[in-house]
Amino acid sequence: MTYRVLVSDPLSQEGIDILQSHSDVYVDVKPKLPPEELLEIIGNYDALVIRSGTKVTRDVLERADRLKVIGRAGVGIDNVDLDVATSRGIMVMNTPGGNTISTAEQTWTLLMSLSRNLVPACISVREGKWDRKKYTGTEIFGKTLGVVGLGRIGSVVGSRALAFGMKVLGYDPFTSEDRIRRMGFEPATLDDIYAKSDYITVHTPINKETSHLLDDQAFAKMKKGVRVINCARGGIIDEGALIRALESGKCAGAALDVYENEPPAADFALLKRDDCICSPHLGASTEEAQTNVAIDIARNVLDALTGGEVRNALNIPSIAPEVRSEIGPYLELAVKMGMFAIQYLGKHADKLEVTYAGPLSKHDTTFLTLSVLKGLLTAVMNETVNYVNAPLLAEKRHIDYAETKNPKTDGYTNLISVKLTSDTETIEICGTTFGEKDPRIVIVDGYHIDAKPYGTILFFKNLDEPGVIGHVGTILAKGNINIADMTLGRKERGGYAVTVCNVDTAVSDVVLDELKSFKAVKDIKTINLR
Length: 530
Prior knowledge:
It is a single chain. The chain is α/β, with parallel strands linked by helices. The protein has 4 domains: 3-97 and 288-306, 3-Layer(aba) Sandwich (Rossmann fold), CATH 3.40.50.720; 100-278, NAD(P)-binding Rossmann-like Domain (Rossmann fold, 3-Layer(aba) Sandwich); 318-451, CATH 3.30.1330.90; 454-530, Alpha-Beta Plaits, CATH 3.30.70.260. Helix content is 34%, strand content 23%. It has a 7-stranded parallel beta sheet with strand order 8-7-6-9-10-11-12, sandwiched between helices. Strand 16 and strand 17 form a beta hairpin. Helix 5 (100-115) crosses helix 7. The longest helix has 25 residues, at 321-345. The radius of gyration is 28 Å and the shape is globular. The two termini are 44 Å apart.
């Protein structure tokens, strides 16, 4: 079968060469393709490779009858209607790691230039002047850098600041304080960053929460003489508020690589100020970054078209039919284990480790791990979580996840282990299936049980002594709560045991309070697996 690929934005030759090297792939390279021409020809292609220039709108996608893959050579997909692509079964891929270093280095280029008044000084020398005193700068050693957003780029920017002897304040609502400290930064609120930072750099996506994040109110809270940098997305800094802060002297300088409107108009006020450096969206514009993203997207698109491994797909997971037949019976179990584990932990998880033991370990278990992740996130988030967006949501919440495999297992044909780690503790649960449609959770933190993962579960530890379970049953009966299934497990006689009750209805706060007042039980949790 021959696949046709359209490259509609400038792409490094190394990427084009990879696409053209495949005998079953025909490549059309048409950079800067006019929108009307794209509409006319998109129905002829199986894959579309773009950068930021091509707008993949609903109209384009509705004419893309053959299109299977959209490959974005870069990170942002603002120019792709992801919802429509997903609804039409079109995989959307990007290259999230290709320009991390280049954008971080651009941030530092602007920060250092801003500190030493490098751009206006250069212009002055070219004009034949020699105003050394006028362009006296400031050292960054010992200063405080506030980093808003600690994803790939923000983390790298902060790490470079430590090397310069700066103090780094880090803010990210999806990163635990312990993780921020492990980076070498001091956890901070936005108000802390505003009040204490000599420099503020933003590294967040643009959305309702971050649009005009640095506005008049934010600048009013900042130290006099603060300097701000934006190499992330235009609109995070309110440009009108920035002008007012510069004019008042509250802000000593700004450096922008991105703008609310690109390119900015010729009469854009910030272009005329010596205290503002403006560059034309150069964050990813290094030879290395351009080459990296071109090679990455070419390989990813080829693999997606020809049945290879799918990498960095943003909306459509892939699983081979022969693999699905082997792991299918474990998919529901994996989702339920993720839901159970995070509710049992009861706090933010920094790390998820999934281990597959037994014959199951011989197969590609990526989809099973995604299932665990989907269950985990579904239990703690209000938004819809699916196999498409689960990895992105985990990344935003800074949950690292990994899988390991062991061909041997003790006592079970196959066993899935889910281990969650927070900033203070680690919990582990294990599950398996009996037959094809009978999933069970069989171990919780070393306690062997035989729990059915469905519905509402009442989980608690209790003293291993006569009468405890009967008393719990009496309390539940008073609350008109019926027990559908129950399993118990203990490590030793006379110590603590665990009890797992599947109940038919939700457990009210009144019943929970009465159970918690019973001294023979502790660590009572309700776990919703619906």
